[in-house]
């Protein structure tokens, strides 16, 4: 790395594409490690505590006997990012168009996109999200460069390395990070005991090859969606389309003699859940459903 790229003392080696992982290992372990991957413009904070200060999944899974791991995606949060492209532009070495795109979602869009209510400031009557703490969720948003990562996403390598170190682990992803467990398993299934996708933006049902589906069919898969997914979105993909795509994915995996399951909360008599199920008022009820599924489908 050049002195200009480093932006500090001088030229030399720097490490990039690392992943920050924090963990909580309970005494008297009862279950498999659970690795949690956050979604777009967010960090591992999503799983630590809720915006209104309640216990998050990170602590709850550990209290239930599951070693609990929370990551910050590569180029996000405490994982840091490669400053070289920005310093190259600042110094005139590179054109501004070569800078990675930095994304950060704004609160009015979040309100509707995350299905807290039909329009900004108006919540659903049965909403489970603590909208009075919306400001605290907004503070959790950080710049996101995931759209500029290469096709061979370094997150897959990092998660695969972690799974191998843990020997047998559940990979759980949310939103933009919900497909990371699938892609990691396709890279190398070693050490992966189960895959959990919380509200993915789709499951690539028509994109995975028969060989990829066969590979995924060797690992138990759980996909979870909250409520109000039929409501139309003015920006971004429709949640109803993502849900339908994941239903097709489940059918393909099960057709290949795999074990994939879809949990749609209203089908279970649970209503009002938002896109942020790990932060909703009934977040521990959702966590218990995941724990029950892990115990039934992924042996330690």
Automatic annotation (TrEMBL):
Signal peptide (residue range): none
The name this protein goes by in its record: AB hydrolase-1 domain-containing protein
SUPFAM superfamilies per the UniProt record, alphabetical: alpha/beta-Hydrolases
Highest taxon above the source species: Bacteria
Entries under InterPro entries matching the protein: AB_hydrolase_fold, Carboxylesterase_BioH
CDD domains referenced in this protein's UniProt entry, alphabetically: Esterase_713 (cd12807)
Taxonomic source organism: Sphingobium fuliginis ATCC 27551
